[in-house]
């Protein structure tokens, strides 16, 4: 039986394994169907990780993490987990797609979330070359330039406000004439002179060349078309929380989830189920930054260590 099973091999999962094994747990396995590193490995430029002076790709940033985190005994199994459940005797069962069931005393789930794509023509082609889903990560690269934001929820408006502090102008494109965001946030957006509202409109195409995005073709509900010349567009049309492995055979969740499907945790990454922890983008109120995910993982690893030892 494992002391600890970690589901997910991004910054949270790797750091959880580092702290748990360095703290003395002997049988700790991280389940990640591919190579460790997580979603951040697809980012082209990282310049805000503390202590790292050089601007580097996400792949380069994560290059040495697995080796360091496995130094004290963390093992990596390249298997995909289909479900995590807990028996009446308190033992967790980690079911793999191949049919194998692995028993564990504790579990940390770090499966993250995936930004939802809008499906607009050109979005996939220019993703990472002018199309982004993280203003905190990529906004600075458009300093004093004009950009577009697609979406109408809290995240879209909050990120538009964030970008307005960096960029010369922000075009906020939304398919309706009203926003789903909180009234306070909506009021701030409407009062910000650097944000132009492009309402009752949809993006037909994201266009560009070998250098990246240079145009956003927009059409309003009356059929009027517009070419917005910008080098970047930030898409915020929701997140798909990767919580599938927590869903049980009867359709219920193993632990308490928020309305959006994020795992509800306390400040120590405890879920509503004893011995089950969640870290990184999967949890509620996650900042969706590498440094924060690593901090979550460290906290979860320490808590799992204490739980097993007790």
Give a quick precis of the structure.
The chain has seven helices and 18 strands. The protein has helices at 11-22, 58-62, 65-69, 135-138, 154-164, 183-190, 290-309; strands at residues 4-7, 28-31, 75-77, 81-86, 92-96, 101-104, 107-109, 113-115, 131-132, 146-150, 169-173, 195-198, 201-209, 212-220, 225-228, 233-235, 239-241, 276-278.
Question: Strand pairing plus helix content: what structural class?
Answer: alpha/beta
What's the CATH H-level superfamily name of the largest domain?
FAD/NAD(P)-binding domain
The total number of structural domains is: 2
State Rg: 21 Å
Q: Give a count of the beta strands, DSSP E runs of length 2 or more.
A: 18
For the largest sheet, list the strands in their spatial order. 3-2-1-7-18
pLDDT averaged residue by residue: 94
Spatial shape = elongated
CATH topology of the largest domain: FAD/NAD(P)-binding domain
Give the count of helical stretches.
Answer: 7
Order of helices and strands: EHEHHEEEEEEEHEHEHEEEEEEEH
Query: CATH class of the largest domain, please?
Result: Alpha Beta
CATH architecture of the largest domain: 3-Layer(bba) Sandwich
* Low-confidence sequence ranges: none
N-C termini distance = 16 Å
Largest sheet: 5 strands, parallel
Provide the helix percentage. Answer: 10-25%
Strand content: 25-35%
